Each structure stands twice: as C-alpha cells, then as structure tokens.
Amino acid sequence: MSEQTGAGLAGGAEEEKQRLAAEEKKRHDEHDEELVEEWEDESFPASDPPSNY
Fold first, then answer.
1. What pLDDT, in 10s, does the model give residues 1-53?
2. Euclidean distance between CA atoms 34 and 13, whole angstroms
3. What is the DSSP string of the chain?
4. Positive or negative CA dihedral for 31, 37, 43, 47?
5. Where does the source fall among the domains of life (predicted)?
C-alpha cells in the first residue's frame, strides 16, 4: 500500500513540475510580447537602415 501512495506522490510531483514549467513559459512569452510592443515603433528592418546610421 505504501508503494501506491509513493507512486501517487511521484506522479503528483511530475504534474507540478509540468505546471510550473508551463507557467514559466507563459511568463517568458508575455515578457517577449511586452518587449515587442515596446520596441516595435523604434525598430527598423535590417534591409532598410536609417540614413544617419
């Protein structure tokens, strides 16, 4: 019976790791989106640099 409980805890720990990884990825993606919004108007394509560059 203790093996069954141990397996349940191990499975729960794995699920928790996956949940935390998904939350971290979401935070990272949101941060990237904020950077895009911040720099979008100030950036320029590499093929067309500003004339004073």
1. 445 555 556 788 999 999 999 999 998 889 888 888 887 766 666 666 666 65
2. 32
3. -HHHHHHHHHHHHHHHHHHHHHHHHHHHHHHHHHHHHHHTTT---TTS--TT-
4. positive
5. Bacteria
Which two structure tokens, joined as six digits, stand for 32?
């990237």
How many other C-beta atoms are found inside a 10 Å radius of the C-beta of residue 28? Answer: 10
Per the structure block, which two tokens stand in for 18? Answer: 């996956």
Question: Does residue 50 contact residue 44 with C-beta atoms inside 8 Å?
Answer: yes
Whether 52 and 46 have beta carbons less than 8 Å apart is answered as: no
| Sequence ranges of the domains in the chain | 1-36
